[in-house]
Design goal:
The chain has seven helices and 13 strands. By secondary structure, it is α/β, with parallel strands linked by helices.
């Protein structure tokens, strides 16, 4: 008899499905075409050997996607309401990567919160964080080691389902451990050349807070890029561009080298941060390279 369940962990060849009583079941997939994500609601059947079999995936409300190694759309997590982007003073923040996550949140669309962890290592708040606050992104300063700021993150997560993302080594697993009060995730020290950190989460998993908040933890991604089909779509991913869109001389302005560009004028006036604009231009290059691989599409 089919049951409705929630995918709470995704492994290479199977998923863990939570039933109505919140018990987890190891489930195979009836078809290779089924590609359930953590956060998906699925139909599944109990098997005689005690395992389960996923037979269908319900329609998704939101899907967080990225570009895979072949330049195609790769769904990462389903039915999110929030994205928690974790950064820290060490390793050195990759602000371009952080911007890419923020663009993904805008286009999914879900709310985005920046969690700047390891505040005990911070002497002053980076200018980049101040720029992000100025355009409306909430910023939580935390220290998983000392417990600072955890209440703020828990409050923001109340009754939300958020994916925890960010570069490796920023303390995502330590942060989740501290929020849950349990050592559920292996914690890894920064290692190797450049101290980029090593991946300590091997599969995406959903965890719950007592206040109804849910976290989806996934392996650290150093080269994340949102899947974007056109320059026009990309522009919607940078919220500070919105007041200036439609005010350029050309309707299809890319805001790169075109004359009489309202976005470039705002950049010159300091209304748009140069670093954010540089992230935009890098993503423009990426979108155009993808379009070149898919004849017939244009920005």
């Amino acid at each position: 008899m089919p049951e409705r369940g929630l995918v709470v962990a995704r492994h290479r060849r199977h998923v863990s499905v939570e039933d109505a009583a919140r018990s987890w079941h190891r489930c195979g997939l009836r078809s290779r075409r089924l590609r359930p994500l953590v956060g998906d609601e699925v139909d599944w059947e109990r098997q005689a050997d005690g395992t389960g079999l996923v037979t269908g995936v319900a329609a998704r409300r939101t899907v967080l996607s990225r570009i895979d190694s072949r330049g195609r759309r790769e769904p990462v997590a389903a039915n999110l309401t929030q994205l928690l982007v974790v950064a820290a003073p060490a390793p050195i923040p990759d602000w371009t990567l952080l911007d890419r996550y923020l663009v993904a949140a805008e286009l999914t669309p879900v709310k985005a919160v920046i969690v700047f962890n390891k505040r005990d290592l911070m002497s002053a708040e980076p200018d980049e964080l101040q720029d992000l606050r100025a355009i409306g992104y909430p910023v939580c300063l935390t220290s998983a080691l000392h417990g600072d700021g955890l209440e703020d993150v828990a409050e923001i997560m109340q009754d939300e389902r958020g994916a925890v993302v960010g570069q490796s080594g920023t303390g995502k697993s330590s942060l989740i451990n501290a929020l849950l009060g349990e050592r559920l995730q292996a914690v890894g020290a920064l290692t190797g050349k450049g101290a980029h950190g090593r991946h300590t989460t091997s599969s995406a998993t959903l965890y719950r807070l007592a206040n109804g908040g849910e976290f989806i933890d996934s392996p650290g991604v150093r080269n994340f890029a949102p899947y974007i089909e056109s320059i026009a779509e990309l522009q919607l991913g940078f919220r500070e561009l919105s007041p200036h869109l439609g005010r350029c001389r050309f309707d299809n302005c890319r805001h790169l080298a075109e004359p009489d560009c309202a976005v470039k004028a705002a950049l010159a006036e300091g209304t748009i941060a140069l670093r954010r604009y540089e992230s935009y231009t890098k993503l423009c290059d990426l979108v155009e390279s993808l379009q070149a691989r898919q004849p017939g599409k244009s920005g």
